UniProtKB/TrEMBL annotation:
It comes from Acrocarpospora phusangensis. Belongs to the bacterial solute-binding protein 1 family. GO terms for cellular component: ATP-binding cassette (ABC) transporter complex, substrate-binding subunit-containing. It holds the Pfam family SBP_bac_1. GO terms for biological process: maltodextrin transmembrane transport; maltose transport. PANTHER family: MALTOSE-BINDING PERIPLASMIC PROTEIN, MALTOSE_MALTODEXTRIN-BINDING PERIPLASMIC PROTEIN. GO terms for molecular function: maltose binding. The keyword Isomerase does not apply. Residues 1-23 form the signal peptide. InterPro entries: SBP (IPR006059). It comes from the Bacteria. The keyword Cytoplasm does not apply. This is ABC transporter substrate-binding protein.
């Protein structure tokens, strides 16, 4: 989802294939669009199996502590297992008809799971479900059903190197709020021999410009391809102009593994990244001074992307009622703030916004992005389409945006079965 999006694509695709083949082979899943099979409820205390994709020791400890507190309070048991490779292990568990009761579901994988009946659609059973940001609720809605509670989220924002900014004679008034201003300030930086923008060359970064132009790859209901539109053409044409004029350069061009690394090395004055860049800069480039700002608005207003997981509950679980109780405990404002303090995530509940921004004021631009963010592509069987789109974006400097969008439109339409 973050730095390793491309590296994970092959593994995720394999896990998705295992999951979808499980449905086809009759291992307990229904065909797409069928109602999830119902497992009989188990009497007595639950022994919940929780599988998480942990970011590290801090997250593992925080989830373990929260699970232990819930177990003590309710008289149940909860065993938390940090996965070595979450997508792969989930794919294997589902294919083997032994899924965990509760597990992290990456937004980019959600539709694959929901489409084969693997998930219990419990979203509206959580207290105050509309308190979760609408963009996150939309991300975990499939065929009109709100499936699972968002665990936390990240958005993209514009990150500026304070020293390079000042070196170019720029101040607070020069922070760009529109695409036009982004171009202007980038030209000023380039004139001072400073690379203006380090930009990841995948849909997970360039897609923010598509949203700002009023476009996206799919219709809101996820059933129709909308790639080949004037809005998306405007976005890719703008990004291509930045690349051709050397106002934006890719991580590879800046001899870096990802844009945050290039930014940390001082190879660019700006980058477009999520709030995970905070930890990376603190750990790897602690002397870099920077500020965070909302994404410059495009022709149709502000646009950004959100990245999130939900607490998935298996449709095969014997402990669905207890699993919902567990998720309820994990998504209270107090617990989400405890997670934020422990390992730096942003709460998915709107009612936690004031507490979060008070504790982390520099992160306000990331949180504000939730109001206009777009989640990942919300349709199954899109892996190869999106991988091909990324390949096209990586060749954008020498590719006609219109031809690329026509190809994405054709491939998406085929993947959707239209």
């Amino acid at each position: 989802m973050k730095r390793s999006t491309l590296r994970k694509a092959v593994v995720l695709s394999a896990a998705s294939a295992a999951l979808l083949s499980a449905a086809a082979c009759g291992s307990g899943f229904e065909e797409p669009n069928a109602a999830p099979s119902q497992a009989p409820a188990s009497a007595g205390p639950a022994d919940l199996q929780i599988l998480i994709g942990s970011s590290g020791e801090a997250e593992t400890k925080a989830v373990n502590d929260a699970a232990a507190a819930w177990a003590t309070k309710t008289g149940n048991k909860a065993t938390v297992t940090p996965a070595q490779d979450l997508a792969q292990q989930l794919g294997q568990a589902f294919a083997g008809d032994s899924p965990p009761d509760v597990f992290y579901v990456d937004a980019s994988r959600f539709a694959d799971y929901a489409s084969v009946g693997a998930l219990e659609p419990y979203g509206d059973k959580i207290s105050n479900p509309t308190d979760f940001y609408q963009s996150l609720r939309d991300t975990f809605t499939y065929d009109g059903k709100y499936y699972c509670a968002p665990k936390d989220f990240s958005t993209l924002a514009l990150v500026i190197n304070s020293d390079l900014w000042a070196k170019a004679g720029l101040g607070d008034a020069d922070v760009p709020t529109t695409w036009e201003q982004l171009t202007t300030v980038s030209e000023k930086l380039k004139a001072k021999d400073i690379t203006p923008l380090a930009l990841g060359d995948t849909r997970d970064r360039v897609g923010a410009f598509m949203v700002g132009a009023g476009g996206w790859i799919l219709s809101p209901d996820g059933k129709t391809a909308t790639a080949d539109t004037p809005e998306n053409l405007a976005a890719l044409t703008y990004v291509k102009s930045l690349m051709q004029d050397k106002l934006a350069q890719t991580p590879k061009q800046l001899d870096s593994g990802w844009a945050g690394e290039a930014f940390g090395k001082g190879k660019a004055a700006m980058t477009v990244e999520g709030n995970w860049i905070k930890g990376a800069l603190t750990n790897d480039f602690p002397d870099v001074k920077y500020s965070v700002h909302e994404m410059p608005a495009g022709p149709k207003g502000k646009g950004t992307l959100s990245f999130t997981n939900c607490w998935g509950i298996s449709a095969k679980s014997k402990y669905k009622e207890q699993a919902v109780s567990f998720v309820e405990a994990m998504t209270t404002v107090d617990q989400q703030m405890a997670f934020a303090q422990a390992f730096g995530v942003m709460p998915s509940r709107q009612s936690a916004k004031d507490a979060y921004t008070a504790a982390f004021p520099a992160d306000a631009p990331f949180v504000n992005g939730a109001d206009y963010a777009h989640g990942p592509v919300n349709a199954p069987k899109m892996d190869s389409v999106l991988a091909d789109f990324d390949t096209g974006i990586q060749q954008l400097g020498s590719t006609e945006p219109k031809a690329l969008l026509e190809r994405v439109q054709k491939n998406t339409t085929a993947a959707l079965g239209n």
